[in-house]
Design goal:
By secondary structure, this protein is an alpha+beta fold. The chain folds into three domains: about 80 residues, Rossmann fold, CATH 3.40.50; about 60 residues, 2-Layer Sandwich (Dna Ligase, domain 1); about 180 residues, 2-Layer Sandwich (D-amino Acid Aminotransferase, Chain A, domain 1). It contains twelve helices and 18 strands. A hairpin with a 5-residue loop joins β10 and β11. α1 crosses α10 and α2 packs across α3. The longest helix is centred in the middle third of the chain and has 18 residues.
Length: about 375
Amino acid sequence: MTVGIVGAGQLGRMLALAGYPLGLDFLFLDKDPGTPGGQLAPQLSGGFTDPALLDELARRCEVVTFDWENIPVESLHHIAQRTRIAPPLAALATAQDRLEEKKLFAQLRIPTNTHAAVDTLADLTAAVAKIGLPGVLKSRRLGYDGKGQAVLRKAADLQAAWDSLGGQPLIYEEFVPFDYEVSIIGVRSTTGETATYPLNRNLHREGVLRLTRAPWHAPVVEAAAKRYIRKVMAHFDYVGVLTIEFFVRRGKLIANEMAPRVHNSGHWTIEGAVTSQFENHLRAILGLPLGDTSAIGHSAMVNLLGDMPARAALLAEKGLFLHDYGKAPRPGRKLGHLTLTETTARRRDLRSAALLKRIDSRKI
């Protein structure tokens, strides 16, 4: 059985690595040559909107999925006329527009921050007057890892933010002075079987995830996060892995955004859970029984950005797992990640903090 994957980045690569032990084959479609996924499986190279390539992908695959949410929905609708695609395109379309995400959260009574649509400088001025400062102006579409956004702290910041981001649909959001960030990862099969992973606590710097720790012990927060993600999965009759990221303030969740795909904050599940998010995504879209999502010990994941530390130094660390995505170095680029698993949360937290500090100071 061949699974098609639109997008051949590191997430697609890890899907293939999880699927080969299940006897699956893979075919990627990506606009760039030399992709992480294309190093492991055949790839159709060309634009995401190329009808001939889309037709070939659909013809050769029993099911198609995607590893990136900024793929044109119209292209995937073209595929859906010829083969099955998961997750649902309605969920993808919602995740591609921050305003639509906020509307969904409000509809499902999932708490989120105050916000307003912005299409003109006058809209921005009105939104700031209503919501207040500080706030964040974001592009509604195509933003990720902190891109396409500006923080407004005083009235004098409005014009510069508009000059930087204006001319596209925008959203202005209340700035949330959160205590910390978490994410919850759920999975739902074609059969309706549903499971969730333990809560993740995440540390971002400049909008990019640097460190995830799981399970994060916060029973009330975790129960609410699992309740909310099940609402979203039920709403879309969802199939596959879904992630929702939240701010936590004074013990309450504030939904930030969702990702209808396997997620960076779930990379720890490869070594740290009975069944990884990648294997469970494949099980879900193929209608196979879901695997156990329980954690094995206490795990941490550290993203490797820009350039790779010395491989030998990493592999000399006891119990440290290295994942190299096969990418060329570039400032800020996600090149790989490290995972460690410890017997206690305290040991995990101390070790992961020290590891991140050593990586940031180039001492490993």
